[in-house]
Amino acid sequence: MNHLLEVSELEQRFDVSPGFFDRLKIRNGRLRYQKSIVHAVNGVSFKIDPGEVFGLVGESGCGKSTIAKTIIKLYEPTGGRIKINGEDITSYDYKKMMPVRKMIQMIFQDPYASLNPRLKVMDIVTEPMALKGAAYGKTEIREKAMELLKRVGLGAEHINRYPHQFSGGQRQRIGIARALSVEPELVIADEPVSALDVSIQAQILNLMMDLKDELGFSYLFITHDLSVVRHISDRIGVMYLGFLVETGPSDEVFLSPRHPYTRALLSAAPSVDEKLHIEPLDIKGEVPTALELPTGCSFQTRCPFAFDRCARERPWLISRAPNRMEACHLLDA
């Protein structure tokens, strides 16, 4: 059986070099041309099955959102493979991606910036159906949009209003309705509640999970909130500096984290559950720049357990997949 989404050795690089003459540097008495490359995503691999929620966690700037935008081809991948239902879409151009985007939709982080301020709510929700060539007439499209708006908690009195007339939570409900309008199989939710008031976050999360159970799609759920990801995810992946360092079922990762960075991340998260108590790790220094990745393990410059091998060799991903247990050098020591 094909996985719904399969990402293999995904890479994303960005050239952030200044102007041509600013790139010229004198080295060893010679004029050299120097580029500045951000290594945003580095060989990331994971799979999502139908009906599954895969949570992607990590600090801000670790590459989570870049992965999301690369999967949906807002960014062209620098390397690796992306498959949807076994179909390799890595090299698809805009035209070939049109039918694929019926299967993958995205809920963006900022509900204030992700909605067109010139469109009314009805137009925002119905536009994807028209663009994706939905087999409905205008009346059917409008009826379906009304049904979606009702499902996300909005009513007929809202359809002729503009985004600026809504609160942040209401705008995110509109974004959810828009994403579901073409009946996707996979919804990528990129920090969907981080820009909302705490009092509204639980409502939106519960709505998203109710819709998932009702309609049967899958989530790639991106967040830095560990309490959220444990509550909603079947499996999680932990990222650091563009690398995926640990994956596994949510409860297993939270109860027995194996990678030092996962342990550090979880120990810093407050919890009233004694089973989730993890002794704090003494992590020093700052996250290295993605312009110049450390040699060997990406975490070795801050890891309290690092030894010589960590600086020479990059470890395998820690995975709890059946019949497979790859680990960082610490576990082999």
Annotation keywords:
seven-stranded mixed sheet; four-stranded antiparallel sheet; 32% helix
Can you characterise this structure?
32% of the residues lie in helices and 22% in strands. It has 12 helices and 13 strands. It has helices spanning 20-23, 64-71, 94-100, 121-131, 138-151, 168-180, 198-215, 226-232, 250-255, 260-267, 308-312, 329-332; strands at 5-15, 24-27, 30-33, 37-48, 53-57, 79-84, 87-88, 104-107, 186-190, 218-223, 235-240, 243-249, 318-319. It is globular, with a radius of gyration of 22 Å.
Sheet with the most strands: spatial strand order: 8-9-10-5-11-12-13
Helix-strand sequence: EHEEEEHEEHEHHHEHEHEEHHHEH
The helix content, as a percent range, equals 25-40%
Instruction: Estimate the strand proportion.
Output: 15-25%
Nutshell version of this structure?
The chain is α/β, with parallel strands linked by helices and 333 residues long.
Secondary structure topology:
Blueprint: E1 5-15, H1 20-23, E2 24-27, E3 30-33, E4 37-48, E5 53-57, H2 64-71, E6 79-84, E7 87-88, H3 94-100, E8 104-107, H4 121-131, H5 138-151, H6 168-180, E9 186-190, H7 198-215, E10 218-223, H8 226-232, E11 235-240, E12 243-249, H9 250-255, H10 260-267, H11 308-312, E13 318-319, H12 329-332
Parallel strand pairs: 5-10, 5-11, 8-9, 9-10, 12-13
Antiparallel strand pairs: 1-4, 1-6, 2-3, 6-7, 11-12
Helix pairs in contact: 4-5, 4-6, 5-6, 6-7
